[in-house]
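Continuing the batch. This is chain 6 of the set; chains 1 through 5 are on the previous pages. Same settings as before, nothing changed between runs. Recording input and output for traceability.
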Amino acid sequence: MRTSVLFDAPGPRTVRRHRLYSLVALVALLGVLAFVVKRFYDAGQFEGDKWEVFVTPDYVRVILVDGLLNTLKMAAVAIVGATVLGAALGVAKLSDHAVVRWPAWLVVEFFRAVPVLLLMVFTWYFIGINRDGGSFWAVVIALTLYNGSVLAEVLRAGVNAVPKGQGEAAYAIGMRKAQVMNIVLLPQAVKIMLPAIISQCIVALKDTALGQYVVAPGLTRIYKEIYLEFNNRVPTMIVIASLYIIVNLLLTALATWAQKRFVGEKKPLEVSLVGNLEGGRNA
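Output for chain 6:
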């Protein structure tokens, strides 16, 4: 039986007390949920005419194609751009040259500090509010800059989390710094920070909802158009939120699979490096 070094294993009375607390919390949560559902029912939010739009083929196509597909497009382009930008800035922040390191630090700290919505608005006006596709690219560029800056810090932390012996062993067998970074440190850092990368992708997907403030296409824009036309704000909110939740759950499942598949490697690179080093000594 495994025990934690942080605290003692709870006894039978504590286990029963925790189960009672959990049961009380569950009953309270169900009570709040029932109260909310009843209020919606009394307000007529579950009447058929308010939900009919979501089973009408033309509107379903609009929600999935004009709404969900555009949201996924913005998120996908932003994620790819943020990954590339984050890798470049992260490596630059690890540079030994101050002329490279300090500008990268300034860019990362600036775009991490500016709210995403303000970035979208500024970018939208910079591109041109009347330009075709301007709102789409305003969302993409803003999310790329913000999430790229965050991923730069994630990469830097991931590289610094790799045991120092890895780099030292690589230098000992004659590798240059670029080789140490590309062959030894970055692959291990990616495995360490992979869950954080996927989590940031989820953040980028959810932040596309802010695009409605710059008239960008996506689910939130479709949400506004539908509830203004049919006066069914709550049903539309439930449907759109459900689509976001489903996509985020799929990304979470991907993160879980990736962590088990790549982070749980049984043969770290340190073994091969140390083996090569010992072989070179014996030779």
